[in-house]
């Protein structure tokens, strides 16, 4: 039995960031403008703090300006809306990112809709979701955009492939399905009420798992030779007994990776697969937004 190719998202994203750094240099030379990304964090969620710090470091590393905004966990929705309004009108800001999840007292859709769609580098605004749905994408959500790059790298053309997306979130599942459709796949979206999931999985040439349940997708569900993209980032107790007793955790995906790698032709690991692509695609979107915003002037 041949083992699957492990799709190295760390290496791919590092190469992409090098290319973005070149794009930023060219952009600066041509337009005399430095792209700026504003990153907003509300509260102290430990994982969010890490992601936000990485985003800021990588923004600077590719030669763009990073603008950091931290609001207290008790900040009001209006304070956040006021900040977004200021950033929407700031010509030095080409991309605005509000880290999710937000504290419960803040209505996430209201916040996302307040961001200028042309600066919405997360691609979550309804205008950008609509553009993607009608096949004229502008700023595309970062995680699905990264998944597409990894898939195209593995398979070349995706035309005519049967693709199964497990999960229908607005951040991953839905935009992922739209991107696969745009790439001429036959797309099925499964969710918690789907009855014949295993059967659907066995027909899929491409499986994208974004359910948030550790090791949910089993090797026995996969069609031999399928390409498996694991979007899950699930924190579970460490394997080592001493580490577990000390309360240590590790990250696993939504796919039973070890067994699935014996059936798939290519598979993303967790960590080191899709995750690193998210931030690289955010930087890519920021350069894109800066290009769009400065092209008319
Ligand atoms: N406004 C947004 N909020 C959130 C997004 C998003 O795209 N926009 N996505 C996630 C979190 N996220 C970025 O924000 C993100 C998640 C994971 C990774 C990553 O590199 N993961 C590593 C493992 C990291 C670890 O050890 O914890 C990997 O998979 O290798 C990057 C970014 C929710 N919020
Ligand atoms: Mg909320």
Automatic annotation (TrEMBL):
Annotated keywords: Amino-acid biosynthesis, Histidine biosynthesis, Hydrolase, Methionine biosynthesis, Multifunctional enzyme, NADP, One-carbon metabolism, Oxidoreductase, Purine biosynthesis
Xref: Gene3D superfamilies: Leucine Dehydrogenase, chain A, domain 1 (3.40.50.10860), NAD(P)-binding Rossmann-like Domain (3.40.50.720)
Family per record: Belongs to the tetrahydrofolate dehydrogenase/cyclohydrolase family.
Pathway(s) of this molecule: One-carbon metabolism; tetrahydrofolate interconversion
Pfam families assigned: THF_DHG_CYH (PF00763), THF_DHG_CYH_C (PF02882)
Coiled-coil ranges from the UniProt annotation: none
Annotated catalysed reactions: (6R)-5,10-methenyltetrahydrofolate + H2O = (6R)-10-formyltetrahydrofolate + H(+); (6R)-5,10-methylene-5,6,7,8-tetrahydrofolate + NADP(+) = (6R)-5,10-methenyltetrahydrofolate + NADPH
Name this polypeptide is given: Bifunctional protein FolD
Originating organism: Zymomonas mobilis subsp. mobilis (strain ATCC 10988 / DSM 424 / LMG 404 / NCIMB 8938 / NRRL B-806 / ZM1)
Lineage of source species: Bacteria, Pseudomonadati, Pseudomonadota, Alphaproteobacteria, Sphingomonadales
